[in-house]
User: Fold this.
Amino acid sequence: MSATAPTPTSPATPPPAPAEPAVLLDHVHRSYPNGGGTIAALAGVTLALAPGSFTAVMGPSGSGKSTLLNVAAGLDRPSGGRVVVGGADLTAMSPDAVTRLRRDRIGFVFQAYNLVGHLTVAENIVLPLLLGGREPDAHLRRYLMAAVGLEGMADRLPGELSGGQAQRVAIARALITRPAVVFADEPTGALDSQTGEQVLEVLRSTARTLHQTLVLVTHDARVAAAADRVLFLADGLIAGHLDAPTTEQVTARMIELGR
Ligand SMILES: Nc1ncnc2c1ncn2[C@@H]1O[C@H](COP(=O)(O)OP(=O)(O)OP(=O)(O)O)[C@@H](O)[C@H]1O
Assistant:
């Protein structure tokens, strides 16, 4: 009698269920009126971003990058398709419910900082909590100010800050609600390259520490190369991606897309 070898059908630990995507876009379209007709800023984009991942979005001017970010972050509504963030289908929710979800789960960093000029750095950072009817979290505010390198600047006004400092305030403000997903639209676009690198590192390291999913639009191949994955857009469609990219690979792909 021969020994029976374990068969591939023997009971085994089932494979782990794939984690729910932090962000899911399912055949997303966004059209805008253009003259007498319409222009398709997004022409059917499908993508899934893993929790905790860092994705850069690149593409020629007008390819739909900002539209993609705005739609994924609930700042804009798609004309068709589904947007699901943390399991919540934004496209099936009322505008008020989307606003609440955005306040609670989503952080957004703009190229133009968008700070409130008459509020101090500390007040700007906790503003999203106050707008959401929550207590200003002084402990987290101090932690974030230290994390982004703004210690000692709590009482300054935005007009007294450099561009890099203002963007750090905007990053701390985007993170104060402990969002699951942080979207950033060219956050280093207005900064010199050294300051831009520092701001990128702040964004990347705080997102990693706080286990956040980070999605960043950039025109800078070096910034994109810091991401786990680069998605390329062209004419409102995903035109490919690179995983663990180098600056040279990103640059080559952008040249192919005729940036
Ligand atoms: N509010 C709007 N009204 C009309 N057309 C718009 C609007 N927003 C964007 N578009 C158009 O949609 C297309 C995509 O724009 P979008 O700003 O998403 O591109 P982008 O890739 O972010 O460009 P850039 O790199 O120049 O910022 C463009 O043709 C743009 O003109």
